[in-house]
Amino acid sequence: MFTRVGRQAQRELGDDVLDALADELELVGQALTAQVERLAAIVELQRSAAAATARLKRPVSIFDLIDLARDEREREHLAALAGRLRRRDESAGTSRFSRRYEQ
């Protein structure tokens, strides 16, 4: 009976379970990589925001961060980080970042 159940389960699953697990690991790995990159962007923006808040002695916006950048390269970098968060938020609807800082 175990053999019959095992064969039926394999027919229902289709591919070898190792192939299915490998596919699942790849998908999870891609999602994890995206989350790690998002976390790094959030941490970097948070550090910049904390420094800008201390400097201006008031709450700041993403536009303040970009305006306070040392040079054009840093401005572009901060804008790209904010843009990355905004695009992700719009596609997933996961946070208020994009709603707060729409241009």
Q: Helical proportion?
A: over 70%
Number of domains: 1
Low-confidence stretches: none
Mean pLDDT: 83
Order of helices and strands: HHHHH
Rg, please? 22 Å
The general outline is rod-shaped
> What summary fits the major beta sheet?
none
Count of runs of 4 or more consecutive helical residues: 5
How far apart the termini lie comes to 64 Å
Structural class from helices and strands? mainly alpha
The count of DSSP E runs of length 2 or more, i.e. the number of strands, is: 0
Our estimate of the beta-strand percent is: under 5%
SSE topology sketch:
Blueprint: H1 2-13, H2 17-56, H3 62-67, H4 72-92, H5 97-100
Helix pairs in contact: 2-4
Q: Which key phrases capture this entry?
A:
single chain, 103 residues, mainly alpha, 5 helices
Q: Care to describe what's here?
A:
The structure is a single chain. With 103 residues, this protein is an all-alpha fold. The protein has one domain. The protein has five helices and no strands. Helix 2 crosses helix 4. The model has no long low-confidence stretch (mean pLDDT 83).
Concise synopsis of the structure shown:
With 103 residues, this protein is mainly α. It has helices at 2-13, 17-56, 62-67, 72-92, 97-100. The chain has 5 helices and no strands.
